[in-house]
Specification:
By secondary structure, the protein is α/β, with parallel strands linked by helices. The chain has a single domain (2-262), classed as 3-Layer(aba) Sandwich (Rossmann fold). It has eleven helices and ten strands. It has helices spanning 45-53, 75-78, 99-108, 112-115, 119-131, 150-163, 180-197, 208-214, 232-236, 240-250, 253-262, and strands at 2-14, 17-29, 34-39, 60-65, 68-69, 82-85, 168-172, 200-204, 217-222, 225-231. It has a six-stranded mixed beta sheet, sandwiched between helices. A four-stranded antiparallel beta sheet has the order 2-1-4-5, with helices on one face. Helix 3 runs parallel beside helix 6 (150-163) and helix 6 (150-163) runs parallel beside helix 7. The longest helix is centred in the C-terminal third of the chain and has 18 residues, at 180-197. The relative contact order is 0.16. The structure holds adenosine-5'-triphosphate and magnesium ion. Adenosine-5'-triphosphate binds next to strand 2 and helix 1.
């Protein structure tokens, strides 16, 4: 469960000026729910995820993860509850370490059975996990991650993020830097892991089709505010064209087009 209550995030512009990015934003996501977050560039989507993960401080408001008030916890303490994958396939793994060592790092914040496993048992468990990715990486556990492709690295990062069975999974355009085939593959893995671990997930994407497919709820942001929150029947009957229309309306583009048509 994620509960964001009236959070305020602003960045200093110098000279005493502040850029207000999120102004009293609230969002509640129930346990096990997947929410797609869409919206224009600069809308504040990454900032919202950063606030939940503790990467950026909030000036006001509160953040709860599984009913725990984590507002005052620093990022490294919140990391116990948060799994994250970002856009850059190089960001989530250490390239100069082996696949196995990267997994061992991720497992250290995970369930006890991983932490207490003997090296031999740990390797066997990880072989099984990595085999689920369907990329043959179980044969390459001793290779440095820098030798993997972007798609392979992103799939590994996703596995590392869910290995700790986090309370929440935060994915920020995690398929955007991948070619269509790899994006499809990592998107499929995302759905599989979310279902398997019954995760609560926020997934930021600019891909409207994926946003509709991967989640039961869609939150649209614009200029730091939630301008649409679709779930249930409303979400089910929404399509890509409908989302684009909502977008245009938010940006005043529909009006501009109408005016163009009339002139
Ligand atoms: N660390 C920071 N310092 C100053 N300004 C920031 C910082 N992080 C974000 N911003 C500003 O906050 C606003 C929202 O940025 P954010 O990255 O959250 O947008 P976004 O919705 O993720 O956009 P995109 O779709 O382009 O990724 C932008 O105007 C951005 O310049
Ligand atoms: Mg962003």
């Amino acid at each position: 469960m994620i509960r964001v209550e009236d959070i305020v995030v602003s960045f200093s512009l110098g000279g005493g000026q502040e850029h207000m990015v999120l102004n009293k934003l609230s969002l509640e996501v129930e346990r096990g729910q997947t929410v797609s977050i869409i919206g224009s560039n600069g809308a504040g989507k990454s900032t919202l995820l950063n606030a939940v993960a503790g990467t950026v401080p909030v000036r006001a408001g509160k953040i709860f993860l599984d009913s725990r008030d984590v507002t005052a916890l620093p990022e490294w303490q919140r990391a116990l509850y948060v799994g994250r994958v970002r856009q850059d396939p190089l960001a989530g793994t250490a390239g100069d370490m082996t696949v196995l060592d990267n997994l061992a790092l991720a497992a250290r914040k995970g369930p006890r059975r991983f932490r207490l496993a003997t090296p031999h048992r740990f390797v066997r468990e990880m072989e099984g996990k990595v085999a689920q990715l369907g990329m043959g990486l179980e044969q390459r556990l001793k290779e440095n991650v820098s030798r993997l492709s972007g798609g392979q690295r992103q799939a590994l990062t996703l596995l590392m993020a869910v290995l700790s069975q986090p309370s929440v999974l935060l994915l920020d355009e995690h398929t955007a830097a991948l070619d269509p085939a790899n994006a499809e593959m990592v998107g499929g893995l995302t759905r599989k892991f979310i279902a398997e671990f019954e995760l609560t997930a926020l997934i930021v994407t600019h891909d409207m089709k994926r946003a509709l497919e991967q989640a039961t709820r869609i939150v649209m942001m614009h200029e730091g505010e939630i301008i649409a929150d679709l779930s249930g029947a409303e979400k089910e009957k929404m399509d890509v064209a409908g989302l684009v229309r909502l977008f245009k309306r938010a940006r005043g583009a529909e009006y501009a087009e109408d005016r163009d048509l009339l002139s």
